[in-house]
Every structure is written in C-alpha cells, then in structure tokens.
Amino acid sequence: MASKKTLKAANLEALGATRLAELMIELTKGNTTAKGRLRLELAGEAGAGEVVHEIRKRLATIARSQAFVDWQDRKTLIADLEMPMQTILRQVAEHDPKIAFDLMWQYLGLANGIYLRCDDSFGQVQDVFQEASDAVFEFAHAARPEPIHLANLIMEALSTDDYGHFPSLIPRLSVVLGPLGLAHLKSRLMTNEARALAGYARKSALQMIADATGGVESLVAEQSRRSLTVPQVAANIAERFLRAGRAEEALEVFDNTDLSPRDRAPEEWELARITAPKALGRSEAAQAFRLTSFEASLNPEHFGAYLKALSEFEEIEAEDRALKNALTFPDFHTALYFLIKWPALQQAALLVVDGSGQIDGN
C-alpha cells in the first residue's frame, strides 16, 4: 500500500479544500510567478473575459520591467514567460482564436525588450519566443484577420524588431495576407518613412515578400549598383532568380560580381554559381566551375560533386591530381583539412612531416 505521505493528487485531496487553499497562500508568498499562475486559474473560474484581462495585465507588467536578468535567474524569467503563453494556448485559443491571436501577437512583441535585458547565452529565451511565433502562425490561420489589418500589424512590429521574429512570419502568413495584404505591406515598406524606421528588418521583410510573391525586381531595386556586385548580395538575389526559373538572369548577376578584394569567393556564392549553368543544361560549364572553385579553395564538397560526373577512369586520374596539388597548396591548414576530410591520411601525414614549420599551434 502506498504511503499517505507520497506527493500525489489523491493524498493531497485528502487534506481538504480549506487546508490546500491555506497551503497555496503560504507557498506562494514572495513567488510572483506562482501567484500569477493562481490568479490566472481564479480568473478562469470567473470566465473567459477575466482570463483575457488578467493575461493583458501580466503582459503589460513584463513589458514595463527593466531589471536585467543574468544566467542565474534565467529559469525564473522563462517560467514567468511560459505562464501567460500556456494560458493562452490552453484556455483562450479553444474558445476564441481571434482573441488568442491578438494576445499572442502582443506576447511576441515582448521579445525585443526581453532580449535587451537578459543573458540568453544558450538560446532558451529565444526558444520560448519561437514557440510563440509558431502559435501566432496557427492562430492567424484559424482566426483569419483582415489582410490589410495584418499587414499594418506586421509593419508596426518591424519598426522595433531587432531579432527577426516578424520578418520570418511573412512567408508563413502569406496565405492569410494574400495578394492584397502582401501588396499593402510592400507599399508601406517602400516609403521614405519605412526606410528610416525599419533598417535591416525592412530589407529582410522585402526579401520575404519577394519570395512569397515570386517577384525579384523589388529586391533588386532596393540595392545600390555597388551592392549588387558584393558576393553575398549577388548570391542572395541570384538564388531568387533561380527559384523563379530565371537562370540566365542569375548568371548575369554572378558575372557582375566583384571578387577582386578577396582571395576567393564565399562558399554560398560558389554553390549558387554552380546551380545556374546546371539549370540551363550546361553541365560542362558547371563542371568547369566546380573544378576551378576546388583548385582555389580545396573545398571537398566541390570536388566530390565534380567526381560524381566523371567516368571511373577519369575519376581516378582527377583524384590523383587533386591529392598531388593539395601537397603544394599555398595554405598549409586548408590543405591539411582537405586531406583529412577526404580522407587521404597518407598524404596528410606527408604534408605534416614536410610542412611542420607551418603548423599554427593556436
């Protein structure tokens, strides 16, 4: 027979409602999170309207707080954030998705202020707001807010969004926004006022809209002539041309890229640059670029893709040449990484013995 001292529901019920109530008051003294939970449960007994009122009060209190939260108090902060969110999910969403959407949108708006005043080294607070972002997506599809209203909400949120929650919602909410909402949001983002307010979030949002609508021109129009030659920007725009089935235009973007300040192109640029001729059926050009990129970088992924397109005999010869070239590659550490990763451990051993003076102990 189980002990009557075991902490389980049946044993606690035996204490009676009055004694349990007294214990709850005693145990929650000085614990604001626990008190808040009790208030929300009591509000639930009073009706849905009281729950909503209590949640809004709790969110307003969190928004007003300016105290810095270090790693030691992070768990308390997370518990404090989880409480109103779980109440929205459990008690509000089932009865009224429109109010649940409104509350969760308000909740997500806390993110910027919270990040500024807490140590979130392990991303645990970010995980909480990611859960809220997922809930906003679900509630929006259930509640179907009016597209122009939703676009205006996103626009207002972008002006203070330094951490990218709201731009990332655009593709997920594109069905709810529809052509009307996306067009309205884009028009607001193109104003001079938006240029001053939204900063990086504005550019990110325009990219998301371009992806959702299949249009790349607005994204290109946002860039200066100089920025279009920057490898990372070029790769970003060219990838969007490729997704839209416009490989020729993607190649034009690549051809205008300025690689002169760098020893070699960024990897994301190289990978996208290989895709363009493949999309046009120019396999020989793609192969030639793979080989050129590999010879400049010793990137094992480029070389692996290059070998796959060769016959068995050609593959053996190409691998032999590559391993010999690695032994004379100007950058010792890049060569060693390739030889170990490939793997070609015998050649890696030769490289270490012959080039031991080049090893950086750090």
Low-confidence stretches: none
List the secondary-structure elements in sequence, H or E.
HHHHHHHHHHHHHHHHHHHH
From the helix content, strand content and strand pairing, which structural class follows? mainly alpha
Q: Bin the helical content.
A: over 70%
* Range of strand content: under 5%
Radius of gyration: 29 Å
* Mean pLDDT metric: 82
Tally the beta strands.
Answer: 0
Largest sheet: none
Please report the distance between the alpha carbons of the first and last residues. 63 Å
Give the helix tally: 20
What would the principal axes of the Cα set say about the shape?
extended
Describe this structure in words.
With 362 residues, this protein is mainly α. It is built from 20 helices and no strands. The protein has helices at residues 9-13, 17-27, 32-46, 48-64, 74-92, 97-108, 111-116, 124-143, 147-158, 165-189, 192-213, 217-222, 231-243, 247-255, 267-279, 283-297, 300-308, 312-327, 332-341, 345-354. The longest helix is centred in the middle third of the chain and has 25 residues, at 165-189. 30% of the residues are buried.
